[in-house]
Amino acid sequence: MITINDKIISNRYKDIDISFRKNPSNNDIYILTDIDAVKRSVKTLILTDFNERLFNPKLGSAVYFSLFENFGPETSILLEKSIKDVISNYEPRAKIIKVDVKENIQSHALIITVFFYVVNVEEIVTININLERVR
Amino acid sequence: MADNKTREISELDFETIRANIASFIANNSTFSDYNYRGSGLSLVMDILAYNTHYNAVYLNMALNENFLDTAQLRSSVVSIAKNLGYTPRSKKSSTMVVSFSIPTTDAANTALTLNKSVKFVGERDGTSFIFQPQEAYTALSTGSQYTFNNVFLKEGSKITIQYTSNGSSTEKFYINNFNIDTESIEVLVEENSTSGQIDTTTYSLISDITTLSPEDTHYYLFESTDKNYVIQFGDGILGRKPLAGSTVSITFQTSSGDAANDITSISLLSTISATIPNSTVIFNSIVTSYGGDVEEDIDSIRINAANNFSTQGRAVTADDYKFFLERDYPQADSISVWGGQDNVPPIYGKVFISFKPKKGFYITNSVKQEILNNIIKNKNVVTIIPEIIDPEYIFLLINISAVFDPKQTLLSSSEVENSIRQNITLYNAETFSKFGTRFNYSKFLYMIDQSENSIVSNYTTIKLKKNIPVYLETTNTYLINFQNAIKEGSFKSSNSFKAETDSSLGLSTSDFFIEDDYFGKLVIYKYSAADGKKIIIKNDSGEINYITGLVRLVDFKPSQTVNDDQTIDLICETKDYDIISLRNNILTILDSDVSITMKVK
Prior knowledge:
The complex is a heterodimer. Chain A is of the alpha+beta class. Chain A has one domain (36-132): Nuclear Transport Factor 2, Chain: A, CATH 3.10.450. Chain A is built from four helices and seven strands. Chain A has helices at 4-9, 34-46, 63-67, 73-90, and strands spanning 14-16, 22-23, 28-29, 31-33, 94-104, 109-118, 124-132. Mean pLDDT of chain A is 83; it is low at 1-9. In chain B, strands 7-13-9-10-11-12-8 form a seven-stranded mixed sheet. A six-stranded antiparallel sheet of chain B has the order 14-3-4-6-1-15, with no helix packed on it. In chain B, α1 crosses α2, α3 packs parallel to α4 (298-311) and α4 packs antiparallel against α5 (318-328). The relative contact order of chain B is 0.09. Chains A and B meet through β1 and α2 of A and α2 of B.
């Protein structure tokens, strides 16, 4: 009998690694599969700003936009909602469990942690995104 | 193995292109995440689709810009028109014709010159416009005054730009001024002659390339891609090429277009002579400024370039005349041209032209002469004589009885009536006041019904009126063409006239009227002073053709008319409900000719 995890092992999701690294074993582009593919997709969606995608201005989250706003109590709520919205709208493979937004005022940074699981997979996936000013 | 599936490659829309790429990947790739917007594959698809979309739009636009019918950019339309030998019309300066006199004590026959640099100023809507003479005029003193008659002034200021020629046949001389009136361009070339003298030569605009010799001093004029104009000289074979180092002076007049039309008064801005104060200049007559117009727009270039090519610069057919007149006399609101063979009565060897100006009813005789000399003379066939005749207006007398339901509206009876009047005015502006229009009775009734929701029905009668100018104290025959079948017994003069010197009417001081006798004859009658009954004085005053609508009033010798402008109003009813206008006739509705009776339902 084939289990859900067997299906995952059979590479249900296959995506290009957008960094275009070369796989030394076959000299081809790296392929992201299954949880890795979904994880990269979720991260890409979160780090996409509104109006960034051609002809699809609503795709994206408010993460970059928030960096240039004054940080207040509502920022976390705004970010959490925005991340949940973009994933529920554009990534049906991921089900959000929790979005955690913490500010690190001393280093002028935001630490975003997204907890989700891939549909039909029990394993909880975590993405950490640190946003900080570079100068 | 080759994939035989159909590929869509003609889409322009981004989403469709992207969907096609997704479909291709779905069938051909090992990757499966093309459906998820966050995937790397989706990003690659976005870029591919954008690139395809970009190229498709670019190619589409580039192709469209290659054809006169589809080009959207002015520079493209102008460029294609250039290949057809057409130069778009620039702005045109308004013209004003003035006559003025200057009191003087100079001896008789002393000459005074009005230079081209003298400036006059006129004003319209709070804006001042400069006018300058088209050419230098000279007047001789009578011993008491100088009189300048019919001085043609052009609106705008004169500007001169100078270039030094490098002697190349491909050299272009740019005129960077959007307000140029190209008709005013004067090109002078100064060259050092072999004897050390400076030779000044005037170059004129090329009109016919087939007659050019290497020594002909002409210039070519083009519109450049940035909406300015460019002058180019001959290459030494088709026209003379200026020598290297020669000075090219280009003088032109700027124009404010149609903004400077309709100026009725003018004053001197600069002095004619140091000894003559401006205050002493007395203007005897001023013709209201006319003829100014904006530059030709893209749609007009599109039409005129093709027409210009088809006419080959010659006016042969009626359409050729119409094209040249529409292009070169943009002040015309409507133009009608017909050959003499189509005239009533036929006059062979002539072509008739009639203008309806944008403002007013008629164009002046000086403008007619200007059109014949400047626009038609060098293009028409020698054996054909062009003649400009005034338009004739057929006024529609409209009597409306409209029924309205006051429960259906908050408006009063007079307000509903006003709605009808406004609609008729609009209908007149949109449908009539041009040559070759048609009055459609049923549409007119519908338009009245639609003027206001509360109007239930209307009963409308239409009569035609022509306003005929007559020569007083002179026996003449008048042809009045209503161009529509006339109802028997409906023709009559709407106002009276006197004929004190007409012996056929008894040299009487009575008021006379004209009407038809139901059998095709015109009769002149008067009313008896005793009992007010109609007395026919002359029962053979002309004929009326009820089928063609042609009325011939013979041996007519009025001495006085009711109308101040020495005209008689003649009216008739038509047999048909729809009314047509041909040749120089224009249908129009005057507000004062509309009578409306409102009835409550």
